[in-house]
Design goal:
This protein is of the alpha+beta class. The protein is built from 13 helices and 12 strands.
């Protein structure tokens, strides 16, 4: 490539010589100026090697064709020697400065491109998805932004190595680990490979390997700093998330204890009053004793439900809900729930409508009964004593839809989403209906764990319908 450019340069000098010597026949000063312009143009267009070739050729032609005696490489007038060397010095100096200016302009353009790539990488770091490993995304963004053939990123904290790019990083992993632990760096100019430590302050936190890329030291330092910031930003977010989760867990425990303490007061007061009456009076009739014992029994059941809800909520919050799925018919689930709450439905009308040929559901029987019991218990508590409650089941788009309908006061639209929040209770029922505000939350989490959904349809004054979906029967997965 350089040889071809030098050949072109010699042809240009030859053309100028021919025109000045044969066509126009100009004097030495004019042709010297023409040579000088050509040499500066060559220097600006290509480089020092080409401009030096042009300078030597121009001096030879200038001496042979334009300085007396013409046609020889000897110079008769000593002043012409001064002019010749001045011309040569001017040509070489001009070529050098022009080449230097071009090199600096090229370096400035390279630095600008590096800054643009660093800026693009910084924007990509801000958009990193916390749901996926950050180092892996960093390696991918570096490969895309800098168009390198291979990227290797070693995270010292996790001990993991992440790769990206169209080719595999050719250097041994030990060199990356050494750079991460000792803070060293090296370059291999032959393969255009760079390995550098990633530092956060003075402490190395990892290392970065790049192949197929030439970066200035300043750009490499900037890239290393961006990667360090990306890693630290993610770790800070993870720490903040853990702190927020711990804080929410503490708040949940505190709120749960407050709610349970408040709810425990009523049944404990009733139990205490009934037991005190039984112990302090020897004149109570058998009927009165049975009534007091019945109060103790009902309030003990109520306490048991509160404790069960608290335990279930704690398990849900801790992520310890384990499904033991089997095939169950909706009819047997409903009948089992009604049997367990028989003391609450003895004087109530419960209507059951299960669609014919309804397939069984693929579910955890114990948990689904808990969810269904919450809905039936709510329907009984929030509807008038003489009104019936309807439990129905049907098939829709391959899923079993179970619904519980009451004829209570209904739920305003603005409260229909909030009723599934922890500890939320409507102002109208907070003082009149016992409860801790956990029942619907527990039901929602159980249904969601089964891959179903739960929702409410209600209008004030027209009652409410709570529905949830479950997968139809299927064989257990192996």
């Amino acid at each position: 490539m350089i040889a071809a450019r030098i050949a072109i340069v010699l042809l240009v000098i030859a053309a100028i010589t021919f025109i000045g010597f044969q066509v126009i026949k100009v004097n030495a000063s004019t042709i010297g100026f023409a040579y000088l312009v050509a040499i500066l143009f060559v220097a600006a267009r290509w480089g020092l090697a080409e401009s030096l070739s042009a300078s030597v050729a121009a001096v030879a032609c200038f001496n042979y064709y334009f300085l007396p005696p013409i046609g020889t490489f000897t110079i008769a007038d000593p002043q012409n020697w001064v002019a010749l060397f001045a011309f040569l010095a001017t040509s070489i100096t001009g070529s050098h400065f022009s080449t230097q200016a071009k090199r600096r302009a090229q370096e400035a353009m390279d630095r600008q491109r590096e800054m643009e790539k660093l800026y693009a990488l910084s924007r990509s770091i801000l958009l990193i998805d916390p749901a996926h490993p950050t180092p892996k995304q960093l390696a991918m963004h570096i490969a895309q932004s800098f168009e390198v053939s291979a990227v290797a990123l070693y995270d010292r904290e996790s001990g993991e190595l992440y790769r990206s790019g169209p080719h595999d990083f050719a250097y041994p992993n030990d060199q990356l680990r050494q750079a991460a632990f000792q803070g060293t760096s090296f370059r291999d100019e032959a393969t255009h490979t760079i390995v550098t430590a990633i530092r956060l302050g003075a402490q190395p936190i990892g290392s970065l390997g790049l192949q197929g890329l030439d970066l200035s030291d300043s750009a490499l330092q900037g890239l290393s700093n961006l990667v360090a910031i990306g890693l630290e930003r993610t770790r800070a977010q993870e720490a903040a998330s853990r702190a927020a989760a711990a804080r929410q867990s503490d708040e949940l425990k505190s709120t749960l204890l407050d709610a349970l303490a408040h709810e425990f007061k009523t049944p404990l007061t009733s139990i205490k009053a009934a037991s005190t009456s039984l112990l302090s009076s020897s004149t109570l009739k058998a009927e009165q004793q049975r009534e007091l014992i019945s109060i103790v029994d009902e309030e003990a059941d109520r306490l048991s439900v509160l404790v069960t809800e608290a335990i279930q909520m704690a398990r849900i919050e801790a992520g310890r809900v384990v499904l033991r799925r089997e095939n169950h018919t909706v009819q047997e689930l409903v009948e089992s729930v009604l049997l367990k709450v028989k003391h609450a439905v003895e004087d109530r009308e419960i209507e059951i409508k299960v669609a014919p040929d309804l397939p069984p559901v693929w579910a955890d029987r114990e948990l689904i009964e808990v969810a269904l019991r919450q809905l039936i218990d709510n329907a009984l508590k929030y509807s008038p004593a003489h009104s019936p409650v309807l439990v129905a089941a049907d098939l829709n788009d391959g899923r079993v839809i179970i619904s519980v309908t009451d004829r209570g006061p209904g739920i305003p639209e603005q409260e229909q989403l909030r009723i599934f929040e922890k500890f939320y209770r409507a102002d109208a029922s907070r003082q009149q209906i016992p409860g801790a505000g956990l029942g619907l939350v527990i039901a929602r989490e159980i249904i969601h764990a089964h891959g179903g959904d739960i929702w409410v349809e209600s209008k004030p004054g027209e009652g409410s319908v709570f529905r949830f979906s479950l997968p139809a029967s299927k064989e257990p997965r192996s």
